[in-house]
Amino acid sequence: MALLYYFNRSWKFFSSIKLTVVLLLSLAVTSIIGTVIPQNKNYIIYFREYGEFLYGIFNLFDIFDMYHSWWFQLLLLLLAINIVVCSIDRFPATWKIVAKKSMFDVSRFRRLSSKEEVTVNRSPAQLIEIYKPFIAKVFGYCRVEQTDEGVCVFGEKGGWSRLGVYTVHLSVVFLLFGGLIGSIFGFEGFVNIPEGEKTEYIRIKNAEKRYRLDFEIRCDDFNVSFYDSGSPSEYRSTLTLIEQGKPVLKKDIIVNDPLRYKGINIFQSSYGMLPPEDVALTFKNRETGMEYNKNVTVGREFDAPENIGKFIINDYRKSGKFMGHDIGETFTGILTRNTGSPVEIILPLRFPSFDRMRNADFVVSITDYKSRYYTGLQITKDPGVLVVYTGFVIMIAGCFITFFLSHQRVCIDIIANGPASRVVVSGISNKNRLGMQQKVKQISKNLARLALTA
Amino acid sequence: MNSSLMLSLTTFVYGLAAFLYIVSWVFKKQAVGVLATGTSVAGIAANTAGIIMRWVESYELGIGHAPLSNLYESLVFFSWTIVIIYLVVERKYNDRIIGAFSMPLAFLAIAYASLSPNISDRIQPLIPALKSNWLIAHVITCFIGYAALAVAFGISIMYLFKEARTSGKSFLLDRFPAPAVLDELNHQMIMFGFLFLSIGIITGAVWANSAWGRYWGWDPKEIWSLITWFIYAALLHARLTRGWHGRRVAYLSIIGFMAVIFTYFGVNLLPGLHSYGQV
Ligand code: HEM
């Protein structure tokens, strides 16, 4: 018995619309927090920003990842329970109205305060013949019943639109459920792949985790194109998926046109340039004017011309510094002569004769270099998307039905009045009552006209 | 004549229309009201022409895209939708006082676009993330929703004024529609706005899923649109509970519209992915 008591209490609590309003407003207000305090940053940043005390409190309530915190999810859970309980609570009553069309009761319509009345010169029996097809056409459902003073015609349409609100609520359940599926069985990861290389491991977002895919992704090519203004126009990666050593799929992806394979989605997300790997160098003998061109690999030592010693390019900077000045893209090399100690040689791309300053027998300069792009891919898996999208469709349809369609019922009460008849039109609608009044006026006009012309 | 000039002209015309609606309301001059409607219609024609010209110009520049890609263009479209929705309401309910509370919003939106030194009216090429038909659907539906909610905001303010003075006669308020009519109209606008707000969020989610592989990423713009949606959902339910009609619904409608404005402008002060709204 006690159990039943608590069950009834909770049922009452969860079927209340006041609770809905409170929950929705609580969600709105608490959601603000996460837009003011940046989410999922390193804890050191928070510690520095808020101090020990505030940090402790925020951390306790998961404020730094609040949309996944227990209390935020609890609010969502309560909303879901609220919706389900409320729907179950109300559905039987609604279904009765929708399914049963026998509930017409003339006295109910007669009690309405706003009615339209005309008197026409025909008997009720004649009028029924004219009005029945008309009402059937306008309303779809039509019924005639005898009354104590004559006869009346009922019309009804849109009863099923009362179900619209249940579909809206169902869609919210779909969204929450789809989101839940995604957060349990899905992931969101990143990977950078240099042109020509492949990988099967990706990094998972907001976690120090790696994830191994069932296939390898190879980046065959990456291109970025620009508008004349210099802003980027398109990022394009040519990808090949390799399963058990065999290529299974090849596709160019661009932003907004991803690759999908076995439930895994691969998106163009960013790109970058690897440090240069191959460099073209010139050694110039100052005395003889003799020039030697060499193609070398960064980080690998080689013999410099005329047996002067060993040379290695050991560094690359996008913006190199020389005596406090920015000298642009700069390589650094080390020349180790057969005799003497190694010297560092600075090689800015923009200033080919920079090395003259060293006043040595050879001037070294960079003529060209090659570097590869890497493509930044976002890799996601979300088995809940289909459920969520279904929710989207249901929600739009449900809102449309709920807002713009209504359950309308009219009653044409035909009362014998000597050889003539009084025709009283009245109508009820579960929504948009002003609109219904307009409609009743219109119908009344049409009926008067029909009685004359038919 | 180019689109910028045409849209500056539109700004001027909307300003004039707003002024005329207010004059007609304050001085009770029916004829001025008719003039205001005429001016609004001229304004919407100029606004439409400006949008189309801008579209054509973008093709002439070789970067053709629908004029819905940055803050300037979205503001222009915003005022276009406000005026359209208002004119429909005016026609249907045959009431011009609402114009005194709606046209100024349309004027403010387009004036901000045209006159603010921070907003560039240059036609820019689309960055890769914006090349999506979902983006167009997203922007159009969001702004239809925002515009309806803007009109609801104007009506809510009228409601609160009218409600505050139910007893006695007020020179300015006596020709306002009855509170019940304003309340009903407010509700109509909010239902319409809520539907489009929902579609706007949904198309945005679908777009995000096609560009970044996730339909929802808890970025501030997304969260604020959700906050707005929660507020209006709460409002729709508040109407269903006893004692929450009228006044409180009007307050919620005003708060909801503040959230719309913050989603639109304020979020750029916060960090996030939706850089396209930035000036
Ligand atoms: C995010 C969650 C929700 C959304 C988006 C939502 C949406 C809606 C919408 C659009 C309407 C129609 C309002 C109108 O006709 O003006 C509605 C009505 C209603 N909602 Fe919700 N709702 C939500 C949650 C809930 C919850 C949790 C309950 C539980 C009590 C609830 C109970 C109702 C009821 C009883 C109605 C009125 C139905 C009628 O008119 O017969 N809703 N809801």
Structure description:
The complex is a heterodimer of chains A (about 450) and B (about 280). Chain A is of the alpha+beta class and about 450 residues long. Chain A has 9 helices and 20 strands. In chain A, a hairpin with a 2-residue loop joins β19 and β20. In chain A, α7 packs antiparallel against α8. The longest helix of chain A has 30 residues, at about 70-100. Chain A is elongated and about 135 Å long. Chain A starts with a helix and ends with a helix. Chain B has about 280 residues and is mostly helical. Chain B has 2 domains: about 1-125; about 125-280, no CATH class. Chain B contains 8 helices and no strands. The structure holds protoporphyrin IX containing FE. Protoporphyrin IX containing FE sits at the interface of chains A and B.
Features of the shown structure:
heterodimer; A: alpha+beta; TATA-Binding Protein; 4 domains; 20 strands; 36% helix; elongated; B: 279 residues; mainly alpha; 2 domains; flat; disordered C terminus
Order of helices and strands of chain A: HHHHHEHEEHEEEEEEEEEEEEEEEHEEH
Strand composition percent of chain A = 35-45%
Regions of chain B with pLDDT < 50 over 5+ consecutive residues?
A: 272-279
Structural class of chain B: mainly alpha
| Count of distinct strands of chain B | 0
Shape of chain A: elongated
What is the domain tally of chain B? Answer: 2
Please compute the radius of gyration of chain A using only Cα atoms.
39 Å
Biggest β-sheet description of chain A: 8 strands, antiparallel
Encode the helix/strand succession of chain B as letters: HHHHHHHH
Number of strands of chain A: 20
Instruction: Please give the oligomerization state of what you see.
Output: heterodimer
Biggest interface, residues from each chain? A-B, 51 and 49 residues
Percent strand of chain B equals under 5%
* Cα separation of the termini of chain A: 67 Å
